[in-house]
Specification:
This protein has 4 helices and 5 strands; from the N terminus they run αββαβββαα. It has 133 residues and is of the alpha+beta class. It has a single domain, classed as Translation Initiation Factor IF3 (2-Layer Sandwich). The longest helix has 19 residues. It starts with a helix and ends in a 7-residue tail after the last helix.
């Protein structure tokens, strides 16, 4: 009787902690690409959230705080086969431009620290999120 309950709890835990991978690609001295690939349970919104948080983390790691998203692209694809079934995966790409604190653009830029919240130091220390939950 306990076995089905434990199995259900484990499955729900796996779904809620879906995997996501993020890669950072430098594009210039003040810009970079964030490429996030997320599991089906994340959905497009989860992939976008992981990419956005990863962008804020990278801005801080590069010594900045202000940034703007200058490019944004979402895509999805199917993975699997007829025997095991198909799953939809999600990808999110963002081109991020870092903005110097004293530049005129900084008034309209986002703050990486504010984006991550009060525990931003811990979040930056952990690195890019691997779950969308």
């Amino acid at each position: 009787m306990r076995s089905p309950v434990i199995l259900t709890i484990c499955l729900v835990g796996l779904i809620l902690s879906a995997c996501a991978q993020t890669q950072i690609q430098p594009m210039s001295k003040d810009s970079f690409l964030v490429a996030t690939h997320a599991a089906p349970a994340c959905g497009p919104a989860g992939a976008r959230n992981v990419a956005f948080k990863s962008a804020a983390i990278e801005v801080i790691r590069k010594g900045g705080d202000k940034f703007v998203i200058v490019g944004d692209q979402m895509s999805s694809g199917m993975q699997g086969d007829f025997f095991s079934g198909f799953q939809q995966n999600y990808s999110q790409g963002m081109v991020v431009k870092m903005i110097p604190e004293k530049s005129p653009e900084s008034a309209n830029a986002l703050s990486a620290r504010e984006t991550l919240g009060s525990g931003w130091q811990e979040i930056v220390a952990k690195g890019a999120p691997t779950t969308c939950g």
